[in-house]
Amino acid sequence: MKLSNSQNRYLRGLCHRLKPVVMVADKGLSDNIMAEIELALEHHELIKIKLRGDREQRQQWLQTINSKFSALLVQSIGQVACLYRRNHKNPKIAIPE
């Protein structure tokens, strides 16, 4: 699924009020962290993640998360990233066309 500019802007606006639900730090993307990301995406659809590492490490983590969970990167500023994955069974966020 590809988002248009207006849809991405809408999701970025929703991200402002969110608090990070998952924090990736020294141990990286362990099985427990991956399970938490899966649960958060399934339940919330739009999540904010805190990535505590250097720039290259954060980019690697985001690529791994995007490929494993088919999540779309909405926004990435510094150590915080917002991800979106639509829940096809029970969608919670209505994205404007």
Core attributes:
97 residues, alpha+beta, Translation Initiation Factor IF3, four-stranded mixed beta sheet, 41% helix, 21% strand, globular
Describe what you observe in this structure.
- 21% of the residues are buried.
- By secondary structure, the protein is an alpha+beta fold.
- Strand 1, helix 2 and strand 2 form a beta-alpha-beta unit.
- It has three helices and four strands, in the order αβαβαββ.
- It has one domain: YhbY-like (Translation Initiation Factor IF3, 2-Layer Sandwich).
- Helices cover 41% and strands 21% of the residues.
Give the biggest sheet.
Answer: 4 strands, mixed
H/E series, N to C? HEHEHEE
Ends: how far apart? 13 Å
Radius of gyration: 13 Å
Number of domains: 1
* Adjacency order of strands in the biggest sheet: 1-2-4-3
CATH fold-level label: Translation Initiation Factor IF3
Q: Regions with pLDDT < 50 over 5+ consecutive residues?
A: none
CATH class, named: Alpha Beta
CATH superfamily: YhbY-like
Calculate the mean pLDDT score and round it: 92
Strand % is 15-25%
Counted by DSSP, the helix tally is 3
